[in-house]
Amino acid sequence: MREQDAYKDLSDLFRVEDNALPAEPFTRQVMHGVRKQKMMRRFVVGSLGFTGAGIAALQLPALLGEWVGVDKTVTQALTTAPTELSTAAVNQLSAAAMSNPMWLAIAAGAALCVFAVSAFERA
Amino acid sequence: MRSDPDLAHAAAQGNEAAFAELVRRHQGKVRGMARRLAGSEATGDDIAQVTFLTAWQKISTYAGGTFSAWICTICWREFLQWRRRQKLEIEFDETAEIIPFDRSADQNEMRMDLTRALETLSEAQRVCVVLCVATGLTHQEAADVTGWPLGTVKSHVLRGVALLRTRLENANVA
Are B28 and A21 inside 8 Å of each other by CB? Predict the structure, then answer.
């Protein structure tokens, strides 16, 4: 036997009372509250979002100014890098060749190999 | 007919119509419970309304199981909050003071008898009888809702039901 069966008669009396309560006005009232709550939430979230967007928009000019500076530095560095690198390589190579002519011979051999391979590749 | 968990899932996605259906289905039980716990129809309906508004906010936390037990847990918490605001600090034991009911709006005779009979129980017995007998929760669910030990709930229900029967019989004889 289920525990509720011991007092089913009393439960039925209470259920009759509860079922007699009109559902619609109460449901309408609750749903009105739900919609009100939803609107309030939207308003709070929306106003916080717009405030955040406003603050971000105010920061934009300063941010763009910084970005242009960064952009210029990076572009300049990229343009001058190959020239600087090749100059440094030539300098290093000539320094090495001057200290030991063997390095010059090795470099010439390597260059000849690279040239031969690339010539055959193209053919 | 869609099941309660289905409706709750739809409500969690923001479907107001699904939530309205849940309110329609459970309003009688929740209002009855709140009215009997608070001892006043108007206050009970206020507590029930706050219960459903809280349920709407927390519907995504409903993890299946009996929807009645879930909503009754919220109702019980709202009732305790209301009581705290009323500063009615009464111990939940058998020697507890009995809170008088405001029954100005009662008209139906049987309802009067039930309300009167309920009013003569100690508060702990009344809480257990309201949850298990009137609201239809199992003893275990009532123990989970109130946080009281299962044995305590069972004994309060047993004694409360016996007393309720005696009072109703006396009222019928008179």
Answer: yes
